[in-house]
Amino acid sequence: MSTAPFYEAGRLSQIAINLFHGWGYNFYRLENQLRADDLLVRAKVCETLGAARHSVEAAEAAWRQEFLPAPSRTQPRPEAKALRGAQTLEAIGRELGVLEGQIRSLPAPESDRMTERFRTEAVTLRRLAEADEVMAGHAEFLRALLVTATATWMIEAAVDIHASIMAVRNALQDRSALLAGLSARAG
């Protein structure tokens, strides 16, 4: 691209062009649209995981209300099985919250000249979109699994729920590896 159009632009246009390039932004570049889409998809994945976490937290509250009554003289301590169930639900909710936070804080590829020199940004962003698609699919599966589930089912299926959480976490790691320029996670 020639720099002549910059010098032919008026003073205000030159300032705007400098600001846009300084910010790494150009309204008409595909890379910027892909970067914005990446942020939107990650926000939606977090929203989906938040809905799953909300379902688990509601199930935990119902479980605690039903099986962990206030201490009384006849039963000063809760039953061990009921307490383990509440702890299982709490752990699942906590895992979902941590995963949601990790996805929210994911970096997007920076828009700078070094990035453009060493890798094709649009190609990288398209690959990130594919990785985000996998992550979103796993998150939606997890949400659908938990949205209508009862606390008892969640406790009994805790191993399967953890496996679904790990699928989202693995997709997250694959995405991070891709962004770091590393090959996909082995194994």
Short description:
The chain has helices at 4-8, 11-22, 30-67, 80-104, 113-118, 121-147, 151-156, 158-179. With 187 residues, it is mainly α.
SSE blueprint:
Layout lengths: L3 H5 L2 H12 L7 H38 L12 H25 L8 H6 L2 H27 L3 H6 L1 H22 L8
Helix pairs in contact: 3-4, 3-6, 4-8, 6-8
Count of separate structural domains: 1
Mean pLDDT comes to 83
Q: What percentage of residues falls in helices of 4 or more residues?
A: over 70%
Contiguous uncertain segments of 5+ residues: 182-187
Q: If helices are DSSP runs of H or I spanning 4 or more residues, what is the number of helices?
A: 8
Shape: elongated
Order of helices and strands: HHHHHHHH
Radius of gyration from the alpha-carbon trace, in angstroms: 24 Å
Count the beta strands: 0
Distance between the termini: 43 Å
| Relative strand content | under 5%
Describe this structure as you would to a colleague.
The chain is built from eight helices and no strands. The chain has one domain (29-179). It is mainly alpha-helical. It starts with a helix and ends in an 8-residue tail after the last helix. The protein is 75% helix and 0% strand. It has helices spanning 4-8, 11-22, 30-67, 80-104, 113-118, 121-147, 151-156, 158-179. 24% of the residues are buried. Helix 3 (30-67) packs antiparallel against helix 4 and helix 6 packs antiparallel against helix 8 (158-179).
